[in-house]
User: Fold this.
Amino acid sequence: MVPILDRAIVKLLPAVPRPVVQRLSARYIAGTTLDDAARVVRRLNDKGKLATVDVLGEEITRADEARAIAGQYHDALARFDTDALDANVSVKLTALGLELDLDLCRQNLESVVVDAAARGRFVRIDMEDSSTTDRTLALYRELRQSGHENVGVVLQAYLRRTIRDLDGLENVRLCKGIYVEPPDLAYREYEAVRANFVLCLEALVAQGSYVAIATHDEHLIREALRVVGDAHLPRDRYEFQMLLGVRPDRADSLVAAGHKLRVYVPYGTHWYEYSVRRLQENPTFARYVAGDVLRRVLRR
Ligand code: FDA
Assistant:
C-alpha cells in the first residue's frame, strides 16, 4: 500500500524530467542493451534464480518498430543459448503490434513462440490494461490450440472477471495487476485484491494449472506457500516470480527454501512507461526521491 505522502509525489511523476526518472528507476531495469540483460541474468542464475527477459517496447507506434521488437526477442533467445543462461521471455502484445494490426501482432508472437520452442524455451504473454484482455486471452488460446505448449499467459487478481477467465488455462502467471481500471471492472480495495488473489490461486491449483505466483506481498507469499503446501503441489508445478530490483532478499530466502524463483528482467531503450509504473508502486517513493535529491546536493 502506498502511503499518502508518496501518493502525492507519485501524482507529480509526469512532471519529473526523464533523466531523473531514468536514474531513480535504474534498479528496476537491466539496462538498454542485450549485453546488459545477459549480465543481469548471469548474476541471477549464479544465485540460483531463473529469469524471464522482457524487451521493453510498449511505447512503439509503427509496424517496423513492432517487427524490430520481435527481432530483439529472437536475439535474446539466441543469446540465452550461446551464454547457457537459464531464462525465458515475457512479451507485451502492444510491443508486438497489438494496437496497430492484430495479424501483425499474431505473426510476431508466433515467430517468437516457434523460435523459443525450437530452443526449449518458454514464452509468457504479459497482461496489459483491460482493453487488451479479450484479445490477449484469445491469442494465447489460439497458440495452445495449434499445439504450442511453451506459452503461458498472465491474469490479474484485481479484475473481477479473472475468476471466470482462469477456467481451463494451462499455464498462468497470477499477479495483482498494475493498470488503472474502473471499479465496475476491478477491485480497488487492497484487501479485496489480496482476497481475490488467494481465491484465484486456489482455483488454478485445483484445476491443475502450472502457476507462477508473481508478488512481493508478504501476506500473499505466505498464503501461496500454504496453498501449494496444502495441495502437496510438486515443486515443478509452480514457481514464485518477482520483479528485478524488488525484495531480492526475500527472493533469496525462497530459493534457499527450495522453491523455484524467477526474476522479471526488463531491458531496452523504451524504458519510460515501465519505470514510471515501478516508481508508482514503490511504497517508500517519497523517501527514495528525497534520498536521491539529498545525495546530489551533498555531491555538489
Ligand atoms: P504490493 O504492491 O502491495 O507490494 C508488496 C510489497 O512489495 C511492498 O510493500 C514493497 O515492500 C514491495 N514492492 C512492491 N513494488 C515495489 C517497488 N516498485 N519498489 C520497491 N518495493 C516494492 N502486472 C500486470 O498488470 N500485468 C503483468 O503482466 C504483470 N507481470 C508481472 C510479473 C512479475 C514477475 C511481477 C512480480 C509482477 C507483475 N505485474 C504485472 C505487476 C503486479 O501486477 C503488481 O503491480 C506488482 O507486482 C506489485 O504488487 P505486489 O503483489 O508485489 O504487492
Q: What stands out?
A: The chain is about 50% helix and 15% strand. The domain at 34-267 is CATH 3.20.20.220 (TIM Barrel). The mean pLDDT is 93.
